[in-house]
Amino acid sequence: MKVAVTTLAFCVAALLALGLVMLYSSSMVMPIKNTQLQVGAGMLRMQLVWCALGMIACVIVAATNYEVIKKLAWPIFISTLILAALVFVHHVGLQINGARRWIRLPGGTLQPSEIVKIGLIVIVAWYGDREQRKMNTFTRGIIFPGLIIGAALGLIFIEPDRGTTILLAGVTGSMLLIAGVRWLHLIPVGIAGVAALAYSFLHDGMRSGRIMAWLHPQQHDDVARQAVQAKIAIGSGGLTGLGLGDGRQKLGFLPEMHSDFIFANIGEELGLIATMSVVIGFLLIAICGFYIARNARDQFGAQLAIGVTTLISVQAAFNIAVVTSMLPNKGIALPFISAGGSSLLAMLIGVGILFSVARRANPAAKMSAADFVVDDNSNPFAARAT
Question: How many other C-beta atoms lie within 10 A of the C-beta of residue 39?
Fold first, then answer.
C-alpha cells in the first residue's frame, strides 16, 4: 500500500508542477480581442491560490476517516445540488457564451458542476454500500439510484454542459455496475440515455456543428479550427518539442490553450516525450487508485476509490482524445494541469479521498499482478466487511 500511495502522490505532484509551468508558458502571451497581447502571470497567480486551497482540502480530507464522509453523504450531496442550482439565480449565476455554469465570487468564479462530481460519487458510493445485497434488482439497482443521479445530471445538462453530463453518467454507471447492478438492467438505460443525448444534439446547432466539423474538418474551417491547430501544435513539437515558452500556437492561433487544449501546448513545447509522460502519469494514477479500491476495508471505501479513480482517468482520457481529434470538441479540463480553480479543487479533494481510503485499508496489503486479474465469475470489489 505504501508503494501505491507514494506513487499516487508523486504522479499528482508532478502533474501539478507541470500544469503550473505550462499554464504560465501558455498564458504569458494571450490575445485580447485579437488586437492586443496580454503579458503577465495573472492566471498563474490565481491557479496558485486555488492549488493552495486544494492542497489544504486534500490534507484535511486525507486526515479524516472516510466513515465521516459516509455519515455526511446526504448533506454533502444536497449542498452540491444547491450550488449547482445557484447558477440559475439572477445576480448570482454568471452566463458566458450562452451557458450558465458559474457563480460569482469575490475576485473570481466557481463552477459548481466540478464540485457536484465529488458529491455525486459520495452519494452513489453510500447507496451502493447500503443496498449492496439488493443491487441486482431493477428497483433498487436502477430506479432509486437513477433518481439520485438524474437530479444531479439534470441540473448540469440544462446549464448546458453535455460533456460533464456524459462524463458523470459514465462514472456513476461504472460504480453501479461494480456495486452489483446487472448488465441486462443497465443496457436499456444506457441506450435510452444515448438516444436522448442524440436527440438533444440534433436540436442544438452549435453542438451538432462540432460533430460535423469533427467528421469533415475540411468543410467546416471555422468550427474545426481548434482541432486542426491542436494537431499542428502537437505535430510541430516532434520528439523533444520547440522549447519551453517557444510555442507559436498560443499567439492567437489556438484559443483556450491554457485550459482545455493545454495538452497541445505540452506537445508543441516539450514534445512527444512529455505528452507520453503525462499519459503514463494518469495511467499510474489509475492503477494506484484501483489498487486502493481493491484493498479497501469495506464496500463504501471501495466504491469511493473506484468513483474518484474512474473520474480522474476518464476525464483525462476524454480531454486528450478531444485534443488529438479522436473525439469531437467539447470543453473539459485536463485534471491537475488545465487552468480552472474549480476543477483543480475538486480533483485534489478526490485525491484526498483516495488517501483516506488507503490509510484505513488492509495493513497487510501488498501490490502484485494478481490484484489486477479479475476472475470471470467474481467481482474483486464486492466482498467487503460491513
Answer: 10
Helix, strand or coil, per DSSP, at residue 48: helix
- Distance (Å, whole) CA 251 – CA 374: 49
With beta carbons less than 8 A apart as the criterion, state whether 361 and 295 touch: yes
Give the pLDDT confidence of 64-79 residue by residue, as tens digits: 999 999 999 999 999 9
Q: What is the pLDDT of residues 64-123, one digit of tens each?
A: 999 999 999 999 999 999 999 999 988 888 887 777 888 988 877 889 999 999 999 999
> In DSSP terms, which residues pair with 96 in a beta bridge?
99
According to DSSP, the residues that pair with 103 across neighbouring strands are 93, 110
Instruction: Please report, for the chain, the start and end positions of each structural domain, with discontinuous segments joined by +.
Output: 2-30+43-365
The pTM assigned to this predicted structure is 0.89
Report how far residue 248's alpha carbon sits from residue 332's, in angstroms, rounded to the nearest whole number: 23
- Please give the Cα distance from 315 to 171 (Å, whole number): 10
Residue found under cell 484493498: 295
Q: Which residue has the cell 482540502?
A: 57
| Confidence tier at 372 by pLDDT (50, 70, 90) | very low
Residue 14 · residue 280 · CB < 8 Å: no
Q: Which of helix, strand or coil describes residue 107?
A: coil
Per-residue DSSP letters for 315-352? HHHHHHHHHTTSS-------TTTSS-HHHHHHHHHHHH
The dihedral region occupied by 340, where left means phi > 0, alpha psi between -120 and 50, and beta the remainder, is left
